[in-house]
Specification:
single chain; alpha/beta; 2 domains; seven-stranded mixed β-sheet; 11 helices; elongated
Length: about 350
């Protein structure tokens, strides 16, 4: 009898917990990610870190129940736009999360028109809309370590190569504008169509200009293919990247020791260890950034007064709270949040050695 009563009490406690959870207002968060295609590992990395954030908050007595609705965009802008419209109109999400500048611009536009928060991780994005926040790196923050390393290596001339995509144009365009002012001549500035896979003729023409270094920022598979073909033609390792090489799965990256990158992947050592312990792989590009972004958003929802009619905080108030945090020290490392929603951070250089990116 005593055992039966104990079992009954335990069952009643679980029902009470479930009831308490079900009684909470639901905050739905949407995520449009590249879960298929060339960068599916980046989308999966983001999905993994979202799970880590949700587990963190699941252990707390939160005011709201948080749910994430995932959609696959395969890093295609049109699909990302369709996903965003669906997430907002059908799923009624309060936030849409996206990764990389190839897709985040249409997500921004649609979310902003609907007064829904757009949380993106995009490189070279120096401004965000009213309802946007970008946890990726600005052009200035990516360019500073690149310039420092080039100067240290005595580089006088560079060739810039990338994809005809908005994110690449913004990132390489910033470098093209500033490098000559900083004493480094740009002898070539080439952009290739998305999906182009033969760069041999272009490499041979640029080699005639004798650049000391090639600075790369492309959309996959351009990065790994260009590096492979360049090495086959020249046998040299004088390749650097403004972040795109850091975001490639090292298993598919040609193993050319000595090339280096602005290491935009980020992630402190504790976070890298926790991620590896859970998933058995390295932290991917934007994963640490988006972990912090989602963590900030949930922190804001938990600390902002709700609308009396809906029982949930207004999106504008949530964003205002995040922008007033000013400094956030999380998975990526220290981030400084500016009033307009851009985030600034220090980014290191890493060198490719024996199949891994190691500290400079």
């Amino acid at each position: 009898m005593k055992k039966l009563l104990c079992a009954l009490c335990a069952a009643l406690s679980l029902v009470a917990c479930d009831k308490d959870q079900s009684d909470k207002p639901v905050v739905k968060i949407g995520a449009t990610l590249p879960l298929t295609g060339n960068l599916s590992y980046v989308g999966q990395g983001a999905k993994n870190t979202f799970a880590m954030v949700m587990d963190k908050w699941a252990g707390r007595d939160t005011k709201y129940k948080y749910e994430i609705v995932f959609e696959d965009d395969a890093l295609k802008p049109q699909q990302a736009a369709l996903n965003t419209n669906k997430l907002i109109s059908m799923d009624k999400v309060r936030v849409v999360m996206s990764v990389f500048g190839v897709v985040d611009r249409p997500v921004d536009d649609i979310a902003n028109k609907n007064k829904v928060i757009s949380l993106s991780c995009s490189y070279g994005k120096d401004s965000v809309p009213e309802y946007g926040i970008n946890v990726g790196n600005t052009n200035e923050d990516s360019y500073a370590p690149l310039l420092k390393k080039l100067k240290q290596d005595g580089v006088k001339t560079v060739a810039l190569v990338g994809t005809k995509a908005e994110v690449a144009e913004a990132t390489l365009g910033h470098a093209a504008q500033h490098l000559p002012k900083d004493g480094i001549k740009v002898v070539a500035d080439e952009r290739y169509a998305v999906g182009e896979t033969d760069y041999r003729l272009s490499v041979k023409k640029m080699e005639e200009l004798h650049p000391d270094y090639y600075v790369l920022f492309g959309v996959q598979p351009m990065n790994s293919v260009f590096v492979k073909q360049y090495y086959e033609i020249t046998g040299k390792n004088n390749i650097a990247s403004l972040g795109s090489l850091a975001n490639i799965d090292t298993k598919s990256l040609p193993h050319i020791d000595g090339m280096w990158t602005v290491y935009t992947v980020g992630g402190g050592e504790d976070f890298e260890k926790a991620y590896f312990k859970r998933y058995g792989s390295r932290v991917e590009g934007c994963s640490a950034n988006l972990y912090d972004g989602l963590d900030m958003i949930i922190t804001a929802f938990e600390n902002v007064e709700p609308n009396p009619e809906t029982g949930i905080p207004e999106n504008a108030d949530v964003l205002k709270y995040v922008k007033n945090i000013k400094t956030w020290n999380g998975a990526f490392g220290p981030m400084n949040i500016e009033p307009d929603g851009t985030i600034r951070s220090d980014i290191p250089i890493r060198i490719f050695q024996h199949g891994q990116w190691v500290k400079d």
